[in-house]
Amino acid sequence: MKILIIIPALNEELNIGGVIDDLKAYVPEANLLVVNDGSTDSTAEIAYSYRATVINLPFNLGIGAAMQAGFKYAERNGYDIAVQFDGDGQHRADQLQDILNPIIDGNADITIGSRFINKGLYDAELPRLVGIRILSRIISIFIGQKITDPTSGFRAVNRKVIEFYSRYYPDDYPEPEALVLLHRAGFRIHEVPTLMRKRLMGNSSITIVKAIYYMIKVILAITIDIIKKVPGR
Amino acid sequence: MELITLFATIINIIIFITVVELTRRNRLKERYSLLWLFSSLVMIWFSASRESLHLLSRVIGIQYPPSLIFLLGFLFLIIINIHFSTIISELSDQNKTLTQEIALLHETVKIRRGEGGK
Asked: Is A60 on the interface with B (CB under 8 A)?
């Protein structure tokens, strides 16, 4: 099975090298693709020097369009499985086999690494935790399946989903939105317990106001996804 | 013809001529000028013809006929703006696809030249 690990990265020169090394140690059989989403630092050069394949978007398109570029690459180069693995170091390569297995065994079309299934408490700011909790309730109701970690970007998909994503992938809040779209297109979604790190370098601070604002926007986006015309499988 | 009627009509005629002229000089595409042309023609008609303005006002129950002019102008602007939003969405979609395509092609070219990362 050809496996592609897509690593979206925006100004991650401090983390990207470690991420690539980590992945090479744990999943040597997979190919690594860094999608450089218009970084202004030396993310691309470092990724090259660590011998990853790099796709350079000439300017910042956002995580959704960057990931879709990666899925298009996977689609054109005949990959059977594509993994999304963040370039900021919060995902752990030693957890990757867990999200790959259900795909390899054919038990799921997409797997999501969840921080909230039985693996102890995930340590994050309270507004973020509350936000994820509310969002997970709403999405679970919308798609009639319990989803504990709808914003997790640690995911693996099979060939059918790669093809689907190449045609259509949401731009604005791709992680939660993709779940609704995949569910509507009839794909099987599985969550797998996973461990994550806090960000290695840099910070992604989140305040209560930001969390509420984010929630409102995401809820609007997924509500529209429910009534949207979705391309077929 | 009252001065205000003349004034309103002239303004709308100027808008109409401007749109026609921009289209003629290829600075505005025909497909984007149609809504403007249609709107300004309707506005010219209702600015110039007091009878039509009063008739339509009575039919839809507007007490003060000149406000119908504002209503029409406002509605046309809303329609034109929604139309523009759809065009912007289409353009940004095309822009995204092109950007992805360039990045993917660039990588392919690198590999062909033997400069690829892997």
From this structure: no
Spatial separation of the C-alpha atoms in residues A165 and A173, rounded to whole Å: 14
- Subunit contact B116:A51, Cβ cutoff 8 A: no
Q: Is A101 on the interface with B (CB under 8 A)?
A: no
Domain residue extents for chain A: 3-227
Which tokens go with A106?
Answer: 């054919």
Tokens of B70: 């504002």
A36 with A56: CB under 8 angstroms?
yes
Residue located via tokens 């994050």 = A124
- Residue B9 near residue B18, CB atoms below 8 Å: no
Asked if the C-beta of B88 comes within 8 angstroms of chain A's C-beta atoms, the answer is: no
H helix and E strand count, chain A = 8, 7
DSSP B18-56: HHHHHHHTTSS-HHHHHHHHHHHHHHHHHHH-HHHHHHH
- What is the pLDDT confidence band of residue A133, given thresholds at 50, 70 and 90? confident
Contact indicator for A2, A79 with CB cutoff of 8 Å: yes
Q: Which of A34, A39, A73 to mutate to test the interface with B (most CBs of B within 10 A)?
A: A73
Report pLDDT digits (tens) over A7-16: 999 999 999 9
pLDDT tens-place string over residues B24-62: 999 999 989 999 999 999 999 999 999 999 999 999 999
Q: Is A31 on the interface with B (CB under 8 A)?
A: yes
- Are A76 and B100 inside 8 Å of each other by CB? no
Dihedrals phi, psi of B113, to nearest 5 degrees: -80, -5
Across the interface, do A73 and B117 touch by the CB < 8 Å criterion? no
The model's pLDDT over A58-81, given as tens digits with 9 standing for 90+, comes to 999 999 999 999 999 999 999 999
CATH 3.10.450.50 matches A3-227? no
